[in-house]
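Morning!

This is the sequence you dropped in the shared folder:
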Amino acid sequence: MGQYPITAGVFGKALAIPGTGNGGTITTPSAWLFENQSGTLGTNYNSSQIYVGVTGDVVAILSDTVGAQDTVTGLNLQAVFTGANPSYTGFAAGSGYDAATNVATTVTSSVHKSPAKQPTGLTVDITVPVPAAIANPTTAGTGYNAGAVTSTAVNPSVGTGITGTVTVTANEVTGFTFTSGGTGYVIGDVVTLDQAASGNDATITLTEVTNGAVTAVTIGNAAGANYSVGDIITVAQGGSGLDCKLVVASVSSLLPVIGDAITFKDVQAGSILPVAIDYVVTCPANSVALK
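The structure's back. Tokens below.
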């Protein structure tokens, strides 16, 4: 790596820096009036050098430091995605999913990237409807208590995974509310409800099935990094069919964050930092940006 020394010689302009630096706010527009074309001054000192007026610590973000690159800003839920060339298969609802937030994902990308720049980190929130509650069980059963039950047997399909809660009168099931729609069911299936150490002979007949199909996906609390438009995302919720797929529709690169700052300890009064600075988080009083 080459070295590029900075000569702290002649400066044509100076700008006083508040002791609070940028106050934790990082914006793109320049803090220099002569550079700023937006009408509103930002906090970007744009490769300035910093003169320290009083001995103390300087916390700053070096020039050209960037935040997460190519984070996901949009997801495509259309059946066919044409936002990339060639087009990719679009949204597939999948099966066996439950509504949840911040679900992990996996990715398949046709864009070649180095091992250090592989797309990773995206989480999503998913909406998964369940069938409507059943007010009249097919068989009321015996020995039940109000509360959670699971499905243990199905006739005639091979569905699995329905869970819910039962309402009970005199230990007989009088109603059932779904918490998970399971997967593999068809309308007309008769599902046996099992409650540990209690009843196991009440049944319901399915008049509606959803089979854990995802109906909506939004970006969760992590937008990830290094994604490309057209990347195919799989919602990786445990216990599902791992078959809900969608496509990245848009990406954006982010500004640095306070965590990217470097602390220069006990900088002596009258010193000029030997590096170019974009953002000053905190600094001693009487410090000045120079260009």
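Headline: Confidence is low (pLDDT under 50) at residues 1-6.

More detail when I'm at my desk.
O.
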